[in-house]
Amino acid sequence: MPNSPRSADKEYLSGPRVPKARRFDLDQVADLNKETNPLGLGHMMPTGEKFAEECGKLGIERSSHVVLYDTMGIFSSPRAAYTFKAFGHEKVSVLDGGLPRWIAEGYQTESGSPVKWSTTNYSSKAANAGWVRSYEEMVRNSEKSDDEIEIVLDHRSLARYTGEAPEPRPGLSSGHIPKSLPLPFTEYLIPSSDSKPYTSYRPIEELRQILVDAAGGEEAWTKLAQGEKSLVFTCGSGMTAAIGWLANELVKEARLGGAKKTALYDESWTGYALREKSVIIKGSE
Fold this sequence. Notes:
Layout: H1 8-14, H2 48-57, E1 66-68, H3 77-86, E2 92-94, H4 98-104, E3 132-133, H5 135-142, E4 151-154, H6 158-162, E5 181-182, E6 189-190, E7 200-201, H7 204-215, H8 218-225, E8 230-234, H9 241-253, E9 261-265, H10 268-274
Helix pairs in contact: 3-9, 7-9
């Protein structure tokens, strides 16, 4: 999050962490090129070559089963999973409840310098077509008729969506993209508590209903489940939008009729609102 004083590198090294875990840095495995990322936004989708290079450094092979976790329970790990799947990696899982749940349930941890691993030659592939939406695509979509429009779910807080609360980034306007619909990412999650100091996903049947309600009801959802329309996830910076993406993947995996065609607006609200020409809607409409 912007303005956070935490150092993920220091936390990884000092521990605790899952034994033999390797640190996957979403701000390093990202598009750092000023020509393709002119706004200098964090954790933007990397090129296939960059992704392959970083995976090779971590000793990952195309056949590896990659299990991802974060230190909040469910927060950044779905974005990492989305990145792997976008580049065609087949075996990808997210540890529900993350490191806090691992610790709370009494599993072994380690700290200090990690065990060294061998690098690999991870093969490079381009990202799956249609998985990432650009600013221009989002603007064009907002100008379409209700029959043609892709359904866009905004995963920021409702107060940021309506413009009542400020954005974490100083000077950035709150509000929302025209015709986008609000669905705070926290709705998908069982919140942290004294007995369970981590967030985790709600039961899959509940995830489906949350998505159905946000998308406009069963009729709208049927069109998504049949692939007649696409579902696009957005948030503040492209991180928590992936929580929604993974929720839909879980619904699909359970054969409960998840949206067939999905995408993520990589720049999300930060990229949209930074552009002076963007149309920003305030209020609940």
